[in-house]
Specification:
The structure holds two protein chains of two kinds.
Chain A: E1 7-13, E2 17-24, E3 27-35, H1 40-55, E4 62-68, E5 80-81, H2 84-95, E6 101-105, E7 110-115, E8 121-126, H3 135-145, H4 152-157, H5 170-182, H6 187-209, E9 215-218, H7 225-235, H8 249-264
Parallel strand pairs in A: 1-4, 4-5, 6-9
Antiparallel strand pairs in A: 1-2, 2-3, 6-7, 7-8
Helix pairs in contact in A: 2-8, 3-5, 6-7
Chain B: H1 14-18, E1 23-24, E2 30-31, H2 33-47, H3 69-79, H4 81-90, E3 95-97, H5 105-109, E4 113-115, H6 117-126, H7 133-149, H8 159-165, E5 173-174, H9 184-194, E6 201-202, H10 216-237, H11 243-269, H12 277-286, H13 295-315, E7 327-332, H14 340-345, E8 348-353, H15 354-360, H16 370-379, H17 387-401, E9 405-411, H18 417-432, E10 436-441, H19 450-462
Parallel strand pairs in B: 3-4, 3-5, 5-6, 7-8, 7-9, 9-10
Antiparallel strand pairs in B: 1-2
Helix pairs in contact in B: 2-3, 3-13, 4-6, 6-8, 7-8, 10-16, 11-12, 11-13, 17-18
The chains are: A alpha/beta, B alpha/beta.
Amino acid sequence: MSIKRNFFAGVDVGSLAAKSVILEDGEIFATGLVPSGVDSVESGLKALNLALETGGLIQEDLTYIVGTGYGRVSAPYANKAVTEITCHAKGANYLHPSVRTIIDMGGQDCKAIRIDQDGAVVDFAMNDKCAAGTGRFLEVMAGVFKVKLEDLGALALSATELVPMSSTCTVFAESETISLVARGEKPANILNGIHHAIANRISGLFARVGIASDVFFSGGVAKNTGMKTAIEEALKVTIVKPEIDPQLIGALGAAVLARSFSKKEGLWA
Amino acid sequence: MAKTALYEYPAELREEFEATEDIHFRDGSRATAADVWHFMTEIGPKRYPFAYTQKKYAGSRLSRDIHLPSAIKNHYLLLTMNDRINKSRENGAPVIFVQGGQSVDPYYAAGGIALRPASVGLWARGRHEGLGLNEEAIRSRNQREKANHAISFEACQTAGYANIQEDDLPVDMVAPFTCLRCSDISYGVEAHRHGPNKAVKLMNIDYPMRHQADKPWAVEYFARNLRRLTSEIGKRAGREVTDDDLTKEIKLHNEGRRLAIDTAELWWSADLPPTNGVDRRALYQMGGMEIHGDPSASLTVLRESNAYIRERVKRGIKAEGVVDKPIRLFVCGSCVFPNDFRIEEAGAIIVGQDNHWSDISTLVAEEGDPYQNLAHAILSYPYEQSIEKRAEWTIEQLKKSRADGVLFLYQWGCNTQSAIARMLCDTIKRDSGIPTMIIEQHEGGSEQSEQLLNRVNAFIEML
């Protein structure tokens, strides 16, 4: 007699990437990550299908799906939609139950989230609508210096000096960067300034919600080592090391919630 | 492009609706429920198709709580605004553009019609017929853009002035209480200096700020300004305004205010929400006697609605589309509120708002000098007091409404509320323990951005 296996999926459609995580009971079973396209539904499905293929599953094998991220409102495949703030909290808590503070930096916003021992959000603050201080901001800067986005952090860490920069507006910062390049400043030093400017901007969010250990860094920008170092310096904290790609934390939290919702709804015992 | 089907009221509702009460207007005329039904089912869809949109998050769409007569009658009064105001103007009533959050008793006492910025917008909307939802949104957005181009500094709700200056909306006077809650009056002054429509008289009714309600000189000074106001409007309306006129008007408006307070207390006491958030807000706002441009009409609908709400609360009837035990949100700040449809879909409901409620819930004494009484009441508006006092009053409203959380929203460019938000929210949180969240809205439009709604949804999930 075969025992029925329960699979739960979280799909996080962000502005730059779509991510999915499938849990088998309480364990990570498969993941998927693809760039976001112009069709939100299609992007989410691509990420989900990638994880399904990796795990050798089909969509019908899934007991429950939770959609999150900005694309959650266009996720007909999901049983429920939850904001990514709640999902990042659950995802970080799943990996590190001792985490009480999360910095989430995604493609178009960054968030300071405080959570309790159960991974429930107790307070949060977000940057304003401007893309300054987000993944999009770094993407623009990578374009200015003609380097790959993933190399930006390492380049910043190779700096010998810190060039003062503002982070109020992406367009202004781009002009400021071009001026600095024209004046002969070294790219690494300018990038160091950019990373620290973003980190200082994030400090403002934590002034509102406070910081408590342990601190977790999630979202696509968390892969940037230069940003991690700049934030650790600005906030005077040590960020815990994630076991999985930090860009998947929102989708992971959504999968954790999918498991919990489906249990409450009596879909499995 | 294929047109999408418009919403239709169910025909089987007609008999039930036509048995409800008439709407009585200030000029002695009336609209029977049959007239209202005819307009809303036959005329309205042709003249104002945007309101009949099936788009579920559109802020201007008709309420689907079809068994609540006020929901239909409120929309009727909003959609007939242009017809009624034109008729009143032809009969000699001057229309005066006033400030948000102020009472309108003296304007009506003097024979005028007072419209706040949102109502001026409703009137302007009524002058452009046959527009679908997107066409109406483009028209409205273009007006705001024109207003933004007309000034050299940032301001928020500028569309009211743009409607007067750019759309030739036939307003007879601009006469707001100045220094009240908003920074957009400065825009009004600049628009008058530079706008093409200089024929509109500008008269600022100076409002002495900072704890003035108990200072006799301030009450006297403001009362004198109110006399100046009624005299000026009276001249335009071709009549002399007596103290008795103002006393009568105060009594009428007090009835509206009392009914709104009673309706709110009933609503707040209910185990299950008796209306959705949109209809609740309309009911409370009717107590301000301004929203329809006819206090008598608002009062008729409010009286009838109060009885319906009482019955729903007594029988435990829940409004359609609202969950059994929603998260209860109280909204602070001027001019902006989150999309009710999205809030309710997320399992919450808005139970109240400090904006306007401050003036609606302030009764005016009815004995003695009416100008002094009115001046004293206006200077006592809790919303206009110090942050500590405003927070104290807001906490009282939070307790009465059993709110779980506070959302403070303000419009980008609002230089007053943006400065107050943080301190007010911190004080509320400190003294009541109720979580708060501050959101700045950057663009107009009732459906709102995903970024804004993302914050609101996350706040609801947190609560």
